[in-house]
Amino acid sequence: MQKLVALAILGLVAFATSAQSESLVIALVGDSTVTDEKGWGRAFAASLGDNATVLNFAAGGRSAKSFLDEGRLPAVLAAKPDYVFIQFGHNGQPGKGAYRETDPDGNYRDFLVTYIEAFRAIGAEPIIISSVARRRFDESGHIRSTLGPWANAAETVAREQGVAFIDLHNRSIELHERIGHEASMAFNPAPNDVTHFNETGAAEIAALVIAELRRLKHPLASLTPAQTL
Length: 229
Known about the structure:
Elements: H1 2-23, E1 25-30, H2 41-48, E2 53-56, H3 64-69, H4 73-78, E3 83-87, H5 107-121, E4 125-129, H6 148-161, E5 164-166, H7 168-185, H8 199-215
Parallel strand pairs: 1-2, 1-3, 3-4, 4-5
């Protein structure tokens, strides 16, 4: 009888754990490099399998400023996510238009804090991600990135606010410099598109995000099988 009771309890615990995993909701907020169509979002969701529901709110052409100004945040909040990944920077750079441009030493940081506070207010855990690097090489085989100031600002805000930080900017630079120009160009969804990703590129970038979660020993890392790295 005691053995049957113990087995029943184990079964209930397993069911509760499974139900908790199935109900876990992760939201993605960002620009086109995070979307399912041209970014790493779909590949990241696939790596989690049935362990979580990933809702991708990222939108092409948006910056940390325009995403808010267009009123896109309420939909993310209404989804009541448990975790929210936040990655901007590309469209905040000079030349993108006043309605999108952000100052990495000024309002870009303020916008990131706005996201953090909004998600914390609904009980979600925000995770800040620095901008994934564009695949632009110099003659010596190194990536020429202009996104450093935004990446550094993201790290500073994450540290000051006490939230997890995924350094996708530097990890992606390291990846491209390691595999070289020819292999990096195999990530292009179109011949001259060195910003976005085809399926191969998206899977590689998603793997970097997961590797960073593991490095941080973040609870979400346990949802992904080690062989996906």
